[in-house]
Amino acid sequence: MLLSSGLYVVHYSANLPNNAFQRTSSFFSTKKYLSERILDLESRLLSLDTDLEKMASLIEENNRLRELLGSAAKSQDSVLVSEVIGIDPDPASQNILIDKGQTDGVFEKQTVIDSIGLVGQVIEVSKQYSRVMLITDLNSFVPVAVLRNNLRLMLQGMGMSEKLQLLHVNPTADIRVGDLLISSGLGERFPAGYPVGIINAIDYVEGRPFVDVSATPKSGLDRSQHLLLVFSENSVSVAENGQAPLEVSRFAD
Predict the structure, then answer these.
(1) How many CB atoms lie under 10 A from the CB of residue 186?
(2) Span 177-205, pLDDT tens digits
(3) Tell me: the pLDDT tens digits for 124-182?
(4) Regarding beta strands 118-125 and 141-146, do their DSSP bridges make them parallel or antiparallel, or are they unpaired?
(5) Nearest-angstrom CA–CA distance, 150 and 184
(6) Following DSSP, what letter does each residue of 158-177 receive, concatenated?
(7) Where are the beta strands (DSSP E) in the chain?
(8) H-helix or E-strand spanning residue 16
(9) In Å, what is the CA distance from 129 to each residue of 72, 99, 135, 235, 244?
(10) Distance between CA atoms of 137 and 156, rounded to whole angstroms?
(11) Percent of the chain with pLDDT over 90
(12) C-alpha span between 131 and 244 (Å, rounded)
């Protein structure tokens, strides 16, 4: 009995290093597995977060398209959906590039809108692309009317994305901050009735012949990704097949 107990002690002692090694090896294997598992789960979580962000982006884009198509349904004019694919990097120019051209029936002087208001006018057309001058461009002039009283005025761009100016406003003119300006249709530059801007400041200095009146655009000029090209009844295409193509390289994506 004593001999058997002694042999067990000797055998147990001899196996101690091996048992310790196995336990240590098992510990590090388990730790490595857990570390790899944590990294895998973190990677999956990051992927899920990315998918959720993409989903949120798609939902937002879908909502914008629904608004755009809802605006198109309300319009009595025929429209064509286009996408902004570039902006003019020149800070003095308020121009954008869209993905529709002559092959889609686009023509110069065509009106461009978004879901909430007037955006601008096509000024150059190629087969697959067109350049649009925004209403905020210094060379943009829009005949407008005050919705509240039908007072007719001329609106000019100021070369900045959020600023427009009414020209030659008489000090006695019936205008107020918050008045909505719509396209009047005069001069056949733009169809009548589209929201253009909202008066946000009126500054009159004694002795001056005119009042300084500024407005903010109604449309999301620097935010709208999809736009509508308007085909009104009196639209006349002036595009020619022999027209030189647009210089797309000058526009930034």
Answers:
(1) 14
(2) 999 999 998 988 898 888 999 999 999 88
(3) 999 999 999 999 999 999 999 999 999 999 999 999 878 999 999 999 999 999 999 99
(4) unpaired
(5) 9
(6) -SSTT-EEEEEE-TT----T
(7) 78-87, 95-98, 111-113, 118-125, 130-134, 141-146, 152-157, 164-169, 180-183, 195-203, 211-217, 226-231
(8) helix 2-74
(9) 21, 5, 19, 19, 12
(10) 8
(11) 42
(12) 13
Type of residue at 34: L
CA pair distance 167, 155, nearest whole angstrom: 6
The most distant pair of C-alpha atoms in the chain lies apart, rounded to whole Å, by 125
DSSP state for residue 239 in the 8-state scheme: -
Q: Is the dihedral of CA 249, 133, 98, 90 positive or negative?
A: positive
Please say whether the beta carbons of 235 and 84 come within 8 A: no
pLDDT beyond 80 at 7: no
Residue type, 107: F
pTM for this prediction? 0.69
